[in-house]
Every structure is written in structure tokens, then in C-alpha cells.
């Protein structure tokens, strides 16, 4: 549940509406959460989504002395890349990939090993997906940091 905007500066409401819109576009995309329902209730936007176990950041923080093997890291990296390819094939950029947004599904299946969540900053792009290696210019959300990819100077 996300409280609906009360001013034009309230970004959480805009993020929830955007996430619901993008998740509805990603219906059936492997490695993304299922959105079952989106509605307004009292002064809140409600997204009813698939139940997930937790995110990788919390997992690592709660078990600081246990390290993942190289094989396990490569296994999850492979599945994350596969998920991102699937999301991009639907014409969506995630724009907020981090450990806190990579989650474990409640029920494991042979095809989905992890779920990429939090599409609040997601971006729908129109492009010719047949052109391999095409770069897309995505406007930065905040002022660019000098010397980074988004630096326009």
C-alpha cells in the first residue's frame, strides 16, 4: 500500500502508479513478480502482488559471516541476466537493479530462480528490437555525477 499523493512533490504515489502500469505490461515475463490487482482504497494505492521470500541484501546482512560460493554467485548472475533480457524484450528498462530488488520466489520452479522487483523507476522504451547493440539514451532521474555514464559534458 502506498499513500496517494497530496501534493505535486509526492513521488511515492507516482512510483506506485508507474510500477502497477509496468508490471501489467510485464504479465507473463519470467523472473518478474505477478501483479494480481491494482486499486485505490481510502487514501492509498494498493498493489496486490506475488508473495516473495525476501531480497538478497537482507539475506547477506542477516548472514554476514556466510559467503556464497563462486558457483552460486554465477548461477544467480546468469538468472538475473536472463531476467533482464526478458524484461528488455518487453520494452522495459528497470533502472534500479540492486541487491535489495533481487528477491527469491516463495515457490521455486525449474525456470525461475529469482525475481527482479521494484519497477517504480522503470521506463517503457520504443525501439527496433531487431537492431542488436542499439544504445538507448535514458534521461537521468537526478543531476548527473561528473565522470559517470550520464555526464553530458
TrEMBL record:
<protein>
    <recommendedName>
        <fullName>non-specific serine/threonine protein kinase</fullName>
        <ecNumber>2.7.11.1</ecNumber>
    </recommendedName>
</protein>
<dbReference type="InterPro" id="IPR008271">
    <property type="entry name" value="Ser/Thr_kinase_AS"/>
</dbReference>
<dbReference type="GO" id="GO:0005524">
    <property type="term" value="F:ATP binding"/>
</dbReference>
<dbReference type="Pfam" id="PF00069">
    <property type="entry name" value="Pkinase"/>
</dbReference>
<dbReference type="InterPro" id="IPR011009">
    <property type="entry name" value="Kinase-like_dom_sf"/>
</dbReference>
<dbReference type="GO" id="GO:0004674">
    <property type="term" value="F:protein serine/threonine kinase activity"/>
</dbReference>
<dbReference type="InterPro" id="IPR050235">
    <property type="entry name" value="CK1_Ser-Thr_kinase"/>
</dbReference>
<dbReference type="InterPro" id="IPR000719">
    <property type="entry name" value="Prot_kinase_dom"/>
</dbReference>
<feature type="domain" description="Protein kinase">
    <location>
        <begin position="1"/>
        <end position="153"/>
    </location>
</feature>
Amino acid at each position: 500500500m502506498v499513500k496517494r499523493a497530496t501534493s505535486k512533490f509526492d513521488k511515492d504515489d507516482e512510483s506506485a502508479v508507474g510500477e502497477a502500469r509496468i508490471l501489467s505490461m510485464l504479465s507473463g515475463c519470467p523472473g518478474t513478480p505477478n501483479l494480481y490487482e491494482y486499486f485505490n482504497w481510502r487514501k492509498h494505492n494498493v498493489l496486490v502482488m506475488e508473495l516473495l521470500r525476501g531480497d538478497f541484501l537482507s539475506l547477506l546482512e542477516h548472514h554476514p559471516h556466510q559467503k556464497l560460493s563462486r558457483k552460486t554467485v554465477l548461477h544467480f548472475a546468469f538468472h538475473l541476466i536472463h531476467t533482464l533480457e526478458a524484461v528488455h524484450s518487453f520494452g522495459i528498462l528497470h533502472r534500479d537493479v540492486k541487491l535489495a530488488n533481487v528477491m527469491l520466489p516463495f515457490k521455486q520452479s525449474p525456470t525461475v530462480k529469482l525475481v527482479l522487483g521494484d519497477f517504480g523507476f522503470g521506463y517503457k522504451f520504443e525501439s527496433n528490437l531487431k537492431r542488436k547493440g542499439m544504445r538507448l539514451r535514458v534521461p537521468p532521474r537526478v543531476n548527473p555525477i561528473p565522470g559517470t555514464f550520464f555526464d553530458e559534458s
